[in-house]
Amino acid sequence: MLDAVIYAVQVGEDGPIKIGWCECIQKRLAALQRANPAPLRVVVTILARRIVEKHLQAFLRDHHLRGEWFHPAPEVLDALSHLKDGWRPPEGRFAPGLNPKWEGLEA
Length: 107
Known about the structure:
Blueprint: E1 4-11, E2 17-22, H1 25-34, E3 40-48, H2 51-59, E4 64-66, E5 69-70, H3 74-81
Antiparallel strand pairs: 1-2, 1-3, 2-5, 4-5
């Protein structure tokens, strides 16, 4: 079931990128903008299952800054550019607890 908007929002043109999920991107962007002094821009949005966000964040963990914020490295930008094409993490880069091989870990 597609139950969320998975989004990436960037600070300016080359700042950090927040990857998250919400029900309404307009409301989420407004809330993020109120809490951020720099202009934000939406990089990508897709309608998907919430679990996609966790897999994407796990895949990009090498570029993690803090919370749900990531450095805008080429690998991050490339993954985001493929989200609308049905991006999937490569084997071994699934979020812990979500890969069937990692049974028993919390989801």
